[in-house]
């Protein structure tokens, strides 16, 4: 199995004419990890040909609707069409949110198979083993004003290292610390309010082999992607602006 990232939904907080809300399917050999479950994630998984009950884990970066809005339909789909001898671990950003979420899923009759889906909370820097992948949750300040946790992730398997930033703060001060080489950095592109020039300057010397933008903000979506692509040409590594359905192989 080729390692890949399939960008299912790549919009910012709202769906747009050409982009759905956030979700990305990471495949590392036989391990499948979904990052976020924005709407309409289940439909997009079906269209991509991936059976949702084959997911090893769902990682939720934070509890904004654009990242979790597709959760009930996803849970329904996994439990309605299970895969024999396969379970899926859901990781929530906050221990306190698990019980209310479970109650909501119960209320919409989605969570009837707790033997198939296991709910967990993640903690900053506490490594999670998913199949052959080690996931390190990287805390950021995106939800600080709400006094709630939010995360990006470092994925490591063999000698592959990938960072997924998750949503960041408006000044990007919480962009992950990158000291060791990362093969791919998947970076959100909505909250760069201090400007692209500063961002480019901040990251141009980091050991990044490839940068992929997702979570594309209103300035650069629906035909305006070229503005972002042009601006980042100065960077010394390749940059991709993901669209819904973009697949990056590694
Ligand atoms: Zn978002
Ligand atoms: Zn958010």
Question: Could you characterize what this model shows?
Answer:
With 250 residues, this protein is of the alpha/beta class. The protein has one domain: Ribonuclease Z/Hydroxyacylglutathione hydrolase-like (Metallo-beta-lactamase, Chain A, 4-Layer Sandwich). It is 19% helix and 29% strand. The chain has a seven-stranded mixed sheet. The radius of gyration is 17 Å and the shape is globular. The termini are close together. The mean pLDDT is 96. The structure holds zinc ion (2 copies). The site of one zinc ion (ZN) has 4 residues, from loops.
Care to give the gist of this entry?
With 250 residues, this protein is α/β, with parallel strands linked by helices. 19% of the residues lie in helices and 29% in strands.
């Amino acid at each position: 199995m080729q390692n890949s990232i399939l960008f299912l939904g790549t919009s910012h907080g709202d769906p747009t004419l050409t982009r759905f809300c956030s979700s990305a399917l990471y495949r590392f050999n036989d391990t499948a990890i979904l990052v976020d479950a924005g709407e309409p994630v289940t439909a997009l998984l079906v269209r991509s040909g991936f059976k949702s009950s084959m997911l090893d884990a769902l990682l939720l970066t934070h509890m904004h609707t654009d990242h979790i809005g597709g959760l009930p339909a996803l849970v329904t789909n996994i439990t309605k069409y299970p895969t024999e001898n396969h379970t899926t671990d859901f990781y929530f950003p906050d221990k306190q949110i698990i019980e209310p979420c479970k109650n909501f899923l119960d209320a919409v009759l989605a969570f009837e198979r707790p033997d198939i889906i296991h709910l967990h909370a993640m903690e900053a820097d506490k490594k999670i083993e998913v199949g052959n992948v080690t996931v390190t949750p990287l805390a950021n300040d995106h939800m600080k004003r709400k006094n709630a946790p939010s995360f990006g992730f470092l994925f490591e398997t063999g000698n592959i290292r990938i960072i997924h930033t998750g949503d960041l703060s408006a000044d990007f001060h919480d962009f992950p610390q990158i000291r060791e080489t990362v093969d791919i950095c998947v970076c959100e592109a909505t909250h760069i309010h201090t400007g692209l020039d500063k961002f480019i300057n901040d990251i141009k010397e980091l050991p990044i082999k490839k940068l992929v933008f997702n979570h594309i903000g209103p300035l650069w979506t629906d035909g305006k992607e070229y503005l972002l692509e042009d601006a980042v040409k100065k960077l010394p590594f390749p940059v991709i602006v993901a669209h819904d359905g973009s697949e990056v192989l590694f």
